[in-house]
Amino acid sequence: MTDPSAAGSPAPGPVARARTDVAAWWGRTRRQAARLGSTIAYGAKGAPVSLALLAVMWGGLVVLSLTTRSYRSFLDHHTALGIVPIENLRLWTPVTSGLFAVGVAAFVVATALFLVVAAPIEHRMGTRRFAVAVLVTQVGGSLLGLALAALGQLLDEGWGFQLHLGVTSGPTAWILGTLMVASANMGTLWRRRVRVGLVALTVVMALFGGHLADITALGSVVVGAVAGPFIVGRSSRATHLAGTRREGRVLVALIVAASAIGPMIAAFSPNAVGPFAVLRELFRSQEWTLDEVNLVCGADPGSTDCRRGLLDLRLGGVGPVLASVMPSVYLLVLSDGLRRGRRFAWIGAMVSQVVLLALALANYLIRFADLDNGDTLFYGVADPTLYRTAVPFVVPLAVMALLVITRTNFDVSAPAGTYTRLWATVVGAGAVLAVLYVAVGALIRSGFDGSPGVLTLLGDFPQRLVPPVLLQWFDPPFLPTSWLATVLYEWTGIVFWAVLVVATAGSFVRPAYGVETDATERARAVLTSSSGSALSWMTTWRGNRYWFSPDGHSYVAFRVISGIALTTGDPVGPPADREAAIVGFSEYAAENGWSPCFYSVTPDVAAITGALGWESIQVGEETVLPLADLAFTGKKFQDVRTAVNRAKKAGVEAEWISFPTAPLAITDQITAISEEWVADKGMPEMGFTLGGLDEVDDPQVRCLIAVDEQRTVHGITSWMPVYRDGVVVGWTLDFMRRRSEGFRPAMEFLIASAALSLQEEGAQFLSLSGAPLAKVGDPTEDTAQTSTLSGMLERLLDVVGRTLEPVYGFRSLLAFKSKFQPVYEPMYMTFPDPAALPSIGNAIGRAYLPDVSFGQSVRLVKTMIDR
Fold it and tell me: Which residues form the Phosphatidylglycerol lysyltransferase C-terminal domain (predicted)?
């Protein structure tokens, strides 16, 4: 086992550190290249169909190049797919079009897809099923693509005409379709990601690029989605798309990123013809030179040609195109923030969609409300049809709807001062750029037509920060005529946007701990310098609010649900101040009209509240494993020793990692294991005192994984620190997941390995945590309080625990932990007002399952009835 916290040698000097960092980077790069090479080699092994088709593609290039005058002309007239070839009865083209590629870029992309996608898929699916998938997706996707192309003419006559005349060749469509086929029996995580990613990619390409190749790729993906279960079968895992909150963020981020990439495709694709390619008019127009514009405008400054020429000078060239694309780049950065659950990213994405809707509305009003008497050049010079004007509304409305529906997923706030620094950086950059623009512009004023003065340059500076396309309403006061003036004029705004992009991306990298990051950081500081219970690290989790004692030495973590201030475990702080903290928090709750309830607390807290006249109910059992004299010997530890011995024989080892810094190859497997576990339940992960991947992704939480010689992760456990007087004295088990088809006794092996490893480090105990709604013994035997409201609630909680057992297995978990012969310590719920018990029960249920949907509730009830 390796321990990331092991002490090292004294810190080296700067030069030595730099050399070490370079050596480490080079070592990682070599290992990653070696792994990539081995992955490609592994995928290519046993992939005869993929390698044969790759050979045909390259062999066709060589043969046809030597035997025909024009390789491309031959393909277009004999093998390429299109409506015209089908009309001319070249009925073989739905097959032959997937064998050859056209163009250097197409060959490079196709070759990469063969090696990275097609060959590994064939190795995974088997040659026979892969061959069937290739044929079905190539032919089916081609026919569906042609049908969609024929329908395209009904939507847009110009687009339909381009599709009618267009032809396509290349294997990209069937490779993507075959990947969609293979996704049918993938694990939950990758099935979901592959399907959402492929659909988003091909839809964006079809709508913005709009070429026949893009349409047939979409058709192949659709055919692959339908045919997949028939070719490879369905996955044994759940098929619905519901997943964890963390994965929901990833999927939303993928869709928002796709919406940002679409306009960029339109901007950089000179031949984009899709229905949304009308947005390319946001980025480019016909090329004019300054001399031509001066000639036209000199003859008639108010003419349409003069205005078009001035507009083109603003939109033409590399600088203006990049400046117009920068908002889309910024939206991509916001997508990364959405992936991390950041509230700022959600707000930024919503604002960006509102801006796009405002621009679309302005376009509509100008074109169809005659606000400019028909003289506008807004959005270029294309024919102002209703269809072309309506298109810009579609994407922003769809993205806004998605963001609104999933808004509860994005509640992570940044640490204190993050956005103060961000805006200070952005405003500072703007001020510096303003000074440079005016100063340099004044020095080279002869490089502009009209020789602008300082005030004119200063008045023009705000326009430099606005994407050029948004300036089409305004006549430019001056234009650059020299290369230096052009650089200053066009690239000032790009630098500003680059600073904004980098600063925003940097804000998302800063650690955040949930809805109240500032308070959470303060709570962490108190916890790590004082004392808490075995469950106290849970007080730092997302969803908690905090009450701090007047002296700041103690705090209580809580959440308010239905008027109940429900705490997470004991108060944190000096044990001598525990009673004062309980009383202080209770008074604070009363002042706010809440009824306090301490949940999952130790017997010490229950005794204190009992002396205050509160009532208590046992709600669980904590299992504690003392480490001082621990040795897994004797008959009672037979199962544990068996697991350890089997791990040695199977080549499975235990390895300590930190999830935030672990290699992607490891964390991705852990994420996949977790998503499959959630999908099998058909219910969302429970929260409150049960952590998920968000809680594992913490630099102070240690993870112990079971990995084999191929670096396959078979299981993972996470361990939270337990502090006493500012020193870590123990560790608490939280996250437990095992690969369904992996090493079966992975959990026994990992817990035993953690116990022995942490014993060597000097830890005093391990807490195997508690199992909610599960207790040792038969709780129905205690009938002394059955006539009281508290007794009735205790019996009700027992019934709920038994009912939920088939879904969440709390009692089975408690029985599993008994293999380690732990010491059992009861956990209590204590409250001052028995009349609030119905609200308390509701609050507990909503705390554990805050995101349960109606459909999931129906499945839960059905599962309980069936069992």
Answer: 527-830
Whether the predicted pLDDT of 398 surpasses 80: yes
The region that residue 206 occupies, defined by phi over 0 for left and psi between -120 and 50 for alpha, beta otherwise, is: alpha
Length of the chain: 867
Exposure on the CB side of residue 815, measured as CA atoms within 13 A: 6
Tell me how far apart the alpha carbons of residues 739 and 743 are, in angstroms, rounded to a whole number.
7
What does the alpha-carbon distance between residue 416 and residue 522 come to, in Å, rounded to a whole number?
A: 11
Per-residue pLDDT at 334 exceeds 90: yes
Contacts of 551 (CB under 8 A, 6+ apart): none
Cα angle 344, 346, 351; round to 5: 95
Q: What is the per-residue pLDDT across 304-324, written as a single tens digit (0 to 9) for each?
A: 667 667 666 666 667 777 887
Give 495-512 pLDDT, tens digit per residue.
999 999 999 998 888 766
Final residue of a domain: which of 509, 535, 557?
A: 509
The H-or-E segment that residue 149 falls in is helix 127-155
- The closest alpha carbon to 688, from 808, 820, 526, 530, belongs to 808
- Give the integer Cα–Cα distance in Å for 472 and 282: 10
In whole angstroms, give the CA distance from residue 9 to residue 6. Answer: 10
Q: Is residue 225 part of a domain?
A: yes
Task: Please check whether residues 500 and 437 belong to one and the same domain.
Answer: yes
pLDDT on residue 763:
92
Question: For residue 278, which of 359, 168, 212, 372 has the smallest C-alpha distance?
Answer: 359
CA pair distance 394, 360, nearest whole angstrom:
10
Does one domain contain both 228 and 96? Answer: yes
Element (H, E) at 119: helix 119-125
Residue written as token pair 């500003």: 496
**Domain stops at, among 737, 772, 807:** 772
CATH number at residue 66: 1.20.1540
Which phi-psi region, left, alpha or beta, contains residue 623 (left: φ > 0; alpha: ψ -120 to 50)?
A: beta
Split into its structural domains, the chain has a count of 3
415 and 324 within one domain = yes
Cα distance between residue 184 and residue 189, in whole Å:
12
Cβ pair 628, 764 in contact under 8 A:
yes
Domain residue limits at 730: 625-772
Q: How far apart are CA 430 and CA 422, in angstroms?
A: 12
Residue 752: per-residue pLDDT: 92
Q: Can you read off the two tokens belonging to residue 227?
A: 């045919």
Residues 282 and 230 occupy one common structural domain: no
Q: Are residues 303 and 222 in the same domain?
A: no
pTM reported for the whole predicted model: 0.66
Sheet-wide strand order for 727-738: 545-548, 555-561, 564-567, 595-601, 823-831, 615-626, 765-772, 727-738, 713-724, 702-707, 653-657
Q: Are residues 690 and 741 in the same domain?
A: yes
Residues β-bridged to residue 707: 653, 713
How confident is the model over 566-590, as pLDDT tens digits? 998 899 999 999 999 999 999 999 8
- For residue 647, give the amino acid letter: A
